[in-house]
Amino acid sequence: MSQTAAPRPRVLSGIQPDFSLHLGSYLGALRNWVRDQDRFENYFCIVDLHALTQHPDPERLRSLTLELAAMYIACGLDPERCEIFVQSHVPAHTQLCWILETLTPMGWLDRMTQFKARSQAQGRERINTGVFTYPVLQAADILLYDADFVPVGEDQRQHIELCRDLANRLNSQRGDVFKVPEALISKVGARVMGLDTPDEKMSKSIAAERAGHAVLLLDPPDVVRRKVARATTDNEPAVRNPAGAGVANLLEIYGALHEVSAAAALEVFEGKSYSVLKSAVAEAIVDALTPIQARYAGIRADEERLTSVLAESAARVHLVADATLRRVQEAVGLR
Ligand code: TRP
After folding, report:
1. pLDDT exceeds cutoff 70 at 293
2. How is the beta sheet containing 82-86 ordered, strand by strand?
3. pLDDT tens column, 172-193
4. In angstroms, rounded to a whole number, what is the distance separating the alpha carbons of residues 335 and 329?
5. Were 251 and a residue from 9, 79, 222, 265 both cysteine, which residue would form a disulfide, CB within 3.0 to 4.6 Å?
6. Which residue has a Cα nearest atom 6 of ligand 1?
7. Residue of 149, 159, 160, 204 to test ligand 1 pocket, by largest number of atoms within 8 Å of CB
8. How far is the CA of 138 from the centre of ligand 1 (A)?
9. Do 83 and 316 contact (CB within 8 A), yes or no?
10. CA angle at residue 23 from 17 to 29, to 5 degrees?
11. Which of 118, 155, 156, 202 for mutating ligand 1's site (highest number of atoms within 8 Å of CB)?
């Protein structure tokens, strides 16, 4: 990694390799990571251990892990400036997770809204305990690297708060063991809603069930055009101000891709038909995805290079993670 005189603040974030990336993850997260990569010291993880809580098919997990790594790079994260690594390649994540679990009251985890939603859906008797302790593993991911900031979406705020609570808890018992990180919830990133559910954020789990929910970063142009053409709107004859939720979402996407506000996008399209808006949005998406897909294909054509990027990064971050783990082990009496 390149070195400059003044140390830059460190960021760490991660995405689960549980489904192909969609436009919402790109415009809401990845694109900001890419833009900010010179401001920070960058740690980007592919959190395959978290994905295990969903019991993926083993081959699919392996292939989605490589896909996501290649996609990080194709979207513009530069392996020369960013650590790009797979969580399970660094054993310290699970090692620290156990120690943190012993410091985590059940009540804290019981209050996590993501766990509550998933346990309501699956039933508390049957849901695996990995879903319950998921935020503790996430805290380990962050604390191992002394991250200053954690760039995430609003839905992860509660998990970052839990991470901070855990760090403060051990720090207050045993002196300054952990750096206490802060969530970095970007205001510039777009909040993209589902094409078929404009009142709900675009989500990987819904996209896995309904193709029309999301544009995937690997969708070919004709698929992009078809999905956008079928996006939910309303029965108005033309774009009006204020726009309904579906139209507002299309304007948000258009604005994000053309680097203008949704309000400015509305001015462009006010009075125009929905089909004019939809084809402009589809073309903007195709234009953005075309170079990403070309880079992606190049990266996947050289699997050896990709796996060595991941291995080299894991070897470097392993040293950082182990130093933190050792500090924690000493603090709790394990060494
Ligand atoms: N829980 C995060 C999500 O679903 C993924 C994640 C795992 C993560 N470990 C992390 C995000 C560490 C930030 C930092 O989006």
Report:
1. yes
2. 82-86, 41-46, 10-15, 149-151, 182-184
3. 999 999 999 999 998 767 789 9
4. 6
5. 265
6. 14
7. 159
8. 6
9. yes
10. 70
11. 156
